[in-house]
Write a structure and sequence with these properties.
This protein is mainly alpha-helical. It has one domain (2-16, 49-457). The chain contains 19 helices and 4 strands. The chain has helices spanning 2-9, 13-16, 61-70, 74-107, 110-121, 125-143, 145-158, 166-197, 202-229, 238-250, 287-292, 295-310, 313-347, 358-371, 373-395, 398-408, 418-424, 430-443, 449-460, and strands spanning 232-234, 258-261, 272-275, 282-286. A 4-stranded mixed β-sheet has the order 1-2-4-3. Strand 3 and strand 4 form a beta hairpin. Helix 4 packs antiparallel against helix 14 (358-371), helix 9 (202-229) packs across helix 13 and helix 10 (238-250) runs parallel beside helix 12. It is elongated, with a radius of gyration of 24 Å. The chain starts with a helix and ends with a helix.
């Protein structure tokens, strides 16, 4: 869901969009297989139902779960585990890289120099703030560029998840840079305006402004932001759209069309979502899912995404993240004041309303976000589990859902330990999702009665 993604990716946009490429998906050439990966390491496109997972009078949840897990090639599982576990370290390296850049900008007084340059451009405070933001974004993007290339391009190709070459990837990074210039500049101007207008209570109003801005971005993203990076078109395949739209109508979702996004230009990952609000609400599937997934898998995935909509996860996320954003700003209020009293003169930062303080705000906000990672992940993982269960009940496709979990296992560790899952997973693990699907199937064998009756009849004769 794009709103939740916006919240997690940027509780405060000016704190978390300091690099242009790390979260971007970039344009490239389509691929029908993993580039840079041997064919034997890839999960099959179509995953049949294992014999142990087929409906029968002696159906066993644990055996069915294990049968699905065993359908994933051992090399593919090892590759996925290595990729996902490497991501744990990248969380740390990202945080440390951002902290080092912030400290450099402050200690070497580069931030103060950028502020001085911006002030020479204009005396208008909003324009001065925007100019500083542009300087800041360019400098931090350049300083973190090597890590961004490794994380967003080299590593993705190494694990067979990227389909783009370096040129198209850089093209998307430039697009992301332009988007960050605009969106980051807007929120930066607004927040510094709030600080100057309410010097003692800015953290309260700043939290409110940030939430409103994030909701606005989530509202416009499906229509205005996504098409910057991908082609979005109406899907005109009745065999696919009719079951999805029927499922939508049955669950009270006002959708008239199903959209397709050409994600294969960038990645081999399969995904779908129900995003936006009101007139911008869209049901979207990426072309990898359409090409590689079975009809049952597609229906189960869409049932999950519709669950987010019907269960009002967007609004529940707002209620959850609003106090989180207030907490971030309250922490900033205390930590920035304390830091300025101690080092403000050395860094040549005059007050909290001074734009040169931005690297310090980024550092403190990133620190708190890093510490709260398990809290954010647990909240989102809980919602994902709720959507899983809703999707199973809506689509009645437990095997399709298990197949989807196997495909997602190409880049998500399938069987983590409980503490590992609590800290690092923002979705239930693949094993837990398959187990939930097989448990649902066991409790609803009557839906597969013909298969059960047939086996019982054979046993009788």
């Amino acid at each position: 869901m794009s709103f939740r993604g916006c919240l997690l990716g940027g509780i405060v946009i000016l704190l978390f969009c300091t690099t242009t490429g790390r979260g971007a998906r970039s344009a490239g050439r389509p691929s029908t297989a993993f580039q840079g990966a041997e064919a034997s390491t890839a999960t099959p496109d179509l995953i049949p139902t294992p014999p142990a997972a087929q409906a029968s009078s002696h159906f066993n949840v644990e055996e069915a779960t294990n049968a699905y897990l065993e359908s994933m090639p051992a090399q593919a599982k090892a590759r996925s585990d290595a990729y996902f576990q490497g991501g744990y370290w990248l969380m740390l390296w990202d945080f440390l890289a951002g902290a080092i850049v912030a400290i450099l900008l402050l200690h070497l007084r580069w931030s103060a120099g950028m502020r001085n340059l911006a002030e020479r451009v204009t005396r208008l405070k909003p324009v001065h703030t925007f100019v500083y933001w542009c300087e800041y974004l360019v400098v931090t993007s350049l300083l973190t560029f090597p890590l961004a290339v490794y994380e967003g391009f080299t590593r993705e190709r190494k694990y067979g998840l990227a389909t783009q070459t370096f040129g198209p990837w850089m093209n998307d990074q430039f697009k992301m840079l332009l988007v960050n210039f605009v969106l980051g500049g807007i929120i930066c101007v607004l927040l510094f305006g709030v600080v100057r207008r309410w010097p003692r209570t800015w953290w309260i109003y700043g939290a409110m402004v940030t939430m409103i801005f994030l909701i606005f971005v989530a509202l416009i993203a499906p229509v205005y932001l996504v098409p910057i990076f991908n082609k979005v078109s109406v899907l005109n395949n009745p065999k696919i759209t009719q079951p999805i739209l029927s499922l939508a109508r049955a669950n009270g979702i006002p959708a008239r069309d199903v959209y397709e996004i050409d994600a294969s230009r960038q990645t081999t990952r399969m995904s779908a979502n129900v995003s936006g609000f009101g007139n911008t609400m869209r049901i979207t599937l990426n072309d990898n899912l359409l090409r590689r997934g079975s009809p049952e898998e597609i229906q189960s995935v869409m049932g999950h995404e519709m669950g987010h909509y019907v269960l009002n996860h967007v609004y529940k996320s707002i209620l959850f993240f609003l106090p989180m954003v207030v907490l971030v700003f309250a922490f900033l209020y205390g930590s920035l004041n304390w830091s300025l009293r101690r080092w403000g003169a050395k860094w040549q930062i005059h007050s909290i309303g001074d734009t040169a303080i931005l690297p310090l705000a980024v550092l403190m906000g990133s620190l708190l976000g890093f510490v709260l990672t398990p809290v954010f992940n647990t909240f989102v993982r809980t919602q994902e589990h709720e959507a899983d269960m809703y999707g199973l009940n809506a689509s009645r496709q437990p095997d399709g859902f298990a197949q989807a979990a196997i495909h997602l296992g190409e880049y998500r560790k399938m069987n983590p330990g409980p503490v590992e899952e609590w800290i690092f997973f923002d979705h239930p693990s693949g094993r837990n999702r398959i187990y939930a699907a097989m448990r649902w199937k066991a409790e609803n064998l009557k839906l597969f009665q013909p298969a059960v009756n047939e086996e019982s009849s054979k046993a009788t004769h």
